[in-house]
């Protein structure tokens, strides 16, 4: 599953990291980043798909996008 983050849409609410702390983290200004990289797109495999989906659904601004 391809996950894309759009920092310009992020309001630093923190929900994605609460739902998926193993996947998401924040820059010093509070905007979303992937935990282990500074890229804006990451491919994730099935075992974490449910966690990722939950974070995606909780994001209030659609700053997280998913594609199969
Ligand atoms: S849930 Fe969305 S708006 Fe909130 S910190 Fe994560 S990416 Fe940003």
What can you see in these coordinates?
It holds the Pfam family Fer4_13. Residues 1-29 form the 4Fe-4S ferredoxin-type domain. It comes from Vagococcus martis. This protein is an alpha+beta fold. The protein has one domain (2-67): 2-Layer Sandwich (Alpha-Beta Plaits), CATH 3.30.70.20. The chain has two helices and five strands. It has helices at 15-19, 49-58; strands at 2-5, 24-26, 32-34, 41-43, 64-67. The strands form two sheets. The chain has a three-stranded antiparallel β-sheet, covered by helices on one side. A hairpin with a 5-residue loop joins strand 2 and strand 3. The longest helix is centred in the last third of the chain and has 10 residues, at 49-58. It is globular, with a radius of gyration of 10 Å. The model has no long low-confidence stretch (mean pLDDT 94). It binds iron/sulfur cluster. Iron/sulfur cluster (SF4) binds at residues 10-16, 32, 58-61, 63-64. Iron/sulfur cluster (SF4) is lined by residues 10-16, 32, 58-61, 63-64.
